[in-house]
TrEMBL record:
GO terms for molecular function: ATP binding; ATP-dependent NAD(P)H-hydrate dehydratase activity. Keywords: ATP-binding, Lyase, NAD, NADP, Nucleotide-binding, Phosphoprotein. Catalyzes the dehydration of the S-form of NAD(P)HX at the expense of ATP, which is converted to ADP. Together with NAD(P)HX epimerase, which catalyzes the epimerization of the S- and R-forms, the enzyme allows the repair of both epimers of NAD(P)HX, a damaged form of NAD(P)H that is a result of enzymatic or heat-dependent hydration. The gene is naxd. Belongs to the NnrD/CARKD family. HAMAP family: NADHX_dehydratase. It comes from Danio rerio. Its EC number is 4.2.1.93. It is an enzyme of class 4 (lyase). One of its GO terms (biological process) is nicotinamide nucleotide metabolic process. This is ATP-dependent (S)-NAD(P)H-hydrate dehydratase.
Length: 428
């Protein structure tokens, strides 16, 4: 046998061995994830029992009418703060409002029909009892840091973006996912963007494949190992890159992977809404400009900007009850049925890249929310809970960074604040 043939055979065998390794690894991870889910569910049940005992000690004779119920509001212009007081301990689910009967939990890859137009609006800002009632739902989904886990279990996040012009955006998104607590961040970018992104951080895994002729196949190999994908930061608008991004979204949907779409990914959605329409694990994070583009593409009429909540709800419904995060002075989060508003205090500083911190961290929050048992989110759509976690965190980072750096605040300063903002919101 010639040396060439020998080499070919050797390469084939090593590729086969590698594939086998990853197949086995994937099976092992699935078993591990299942075990973790069961453990989480058992813990929750125990806590629930404890909570009931605790509640019965605190409220010995509750009259049926004394239990505050979440209210349905068939209009957009009312704000109902959640009324039930928190017990002040994140591990007491009974202190949370029961959303189960009012919201639709998203299942893996399910398409949702347009529902009725009734929805609940819940408005939250730090310091009010309302925020106290959603933050615990976010907390319930955050995996505890224990020595029992192996690398990768708390999240392997993929970022699809990064091209010649934009290398900062995918870096901000990927590093934010890591800093929030994901174990691995992969960036799939163009060949010329890769060395630049790698040079920013040795912590990121960077694949220079997005503009290669077999980009989709190259990236698809990694999909079984990813828990969520964030499509768009620094993607650019070149047709070939948008086409590859579209195909990656389609293949992620087939696997039920949560897909967060931001920045230039939203340009793609405005051109071809069907790419994500109705996918219940899809979350869009438009700024006002991107929102206007999407709205006008879907409704074929100019946006009436007098009522952002109503417009956001209409757009979500038109997109098949997809979760939308309309960023702005207050962040509006809706799946067309429920509206959450996050007005956590930020600052007046609007430096480029803040949205990337939001979408990257949302990659991790979305994985956690979708892999939590439904009682962790009290039946609330996991996308809403994840989005609330990411928006409150981004705004808190902005606030803390501004406190230190004032008008010189940049996204890198905000990323430095992730740990302490996270602690303050979710671990105190
Ligand atoms: N350091 C980097 O590499 C960064 C790259 N970025 C990337 O840059 C690309 C283009 O993003 P753009 O946001 O510029 O593109 P857009 O086309 O969405 O925005 C166009 C213009 O709209 C303006 N705009 C944004 N919000 C507005 C609002 N609320 N009201 C009125 N005008 C508003 C912006 O200033 C911008 O000039 C994306 O790929 C994005 O990810 C950004 O993420 C910023 C940081
Ligand atoms: N007027 C505002 N007041 C307070 N916070 C805001 C305001 N506008 C946006 N934010 C916050 O800043 C974050 C990023 O929103 P922004 O509108 O800057 O996104 P973006 O334009 O997509 O960002 P990027 O520069 O990364 O593309 C959001 O979490 C949002 O809560």
């Amino acid at each position: 046998m010639s040396l060439e043939k020998l080499m070919e055979k050797f390469l084939e065998q090593s590729m086969e061995a590698e594939d086998n390794f990853y197949r086995l690894e994937e099976q092992r991870l699935q078993v591990e994830d299942k075990r973790r889910e069961e453990e989480h569910s058992r813990e929750l049940q125990m806590l629930q029992m404890l909570g009931q005992i605790f509640a019965s000690i605190r409220m010995p004779s509750p009259a049926p009418t004394a239990t505050p119920q979440p209210s349905f509001i068939p209009q957009t212009n009312l704000t109902v703060p959640l009324a039930r007081p928190s017990l002040g301990n994140r591990n007491h689910p009974p202190a949370l409002i029961d959303f189960a009967s009012h919201s639709q939990a998203a299942g893996p890859g399910l398409l949702m029909e347009e529902g009725d137009f009734q929805f609940i609006e819940r408005s939250f800002s730090l310091g009010t009892s309302g925020m106290d009632n959603v933050i615990p739902l976010v907390r319930n989904t955050i995996p505890p840091l224990t020595s029992k886990k192996h690398k990768g279990q708390d999240g392997r996040i993929g970022i699809i973006g990064g091209c010649q012009e934009y290398t900062g955006a995918p870096f901000f998104a990927a590093i934010s996912a890591l800093k929030v607590g994901a174990d691995l961040s992969h960036v799939f970018c163009t060949k010329d963007a890769a060395p630049v992104i790698k040079s920013y951080s040795p912590e990121l895994i960077v694949h220079p494949v997005l503009d290669s002729p077999n980009a989709v196949e190259e990236i698809e190999k990694w999909l079984p190992r990813l828990h969520s994908v964030v499509v768009g930061p620094g993607l650019g608008r070149e047709d070939m890159l948008l086409k590859n991004a579209k195909e990656i979204i389609e293949r992620s949907k087939l696997r039920g992977i949560p897909v967060i779409i931001d920045a230039d990914g939203l340009w793609l959605v405005a051109k071809e809404p069907s790419v994500i329409q109705g996918y219940q694990r899809g979350i869009l994070t438009p700024n006002f400009m991107e929102f206007t583009r999407l709205y006008e593409a879907m409704h074929h009429e100019p946006l009436d900007s007098s009522d952002h909540k109503r417009s956001a709800q209409q757009l979500s419904i038109a997109l098949g009850h997809l979760t939308l995060v309309l960023k702005g002075e207050e962040d509006i989060i809706t799946d067309g049925k429920n509206i959450l508003t996050c007005s956590q205090e930020g600052s007046g500083r609007r430096c480029g890249g803040q949205g990337d911190l939001l979408s990257g961290s949302l990659g991790a929050f979305a994985h956690w929310a979708f892999s939590s048992p439904s009682d962790a989110t009290k039946g609330m759509n996991p996308s809403l809970v994840a989005a609330f976690g990411a928006t409150s965190l981004t705004r808190q980072c902005n606030r803390q960074a501004f406190h230190k750096h004032g008008r010189s605040t940049t996204t890198s300063d905000m990323i430095q604040e992730i740990n302490s903002a996270f602690k303050k919101l979710f671990e105190s």
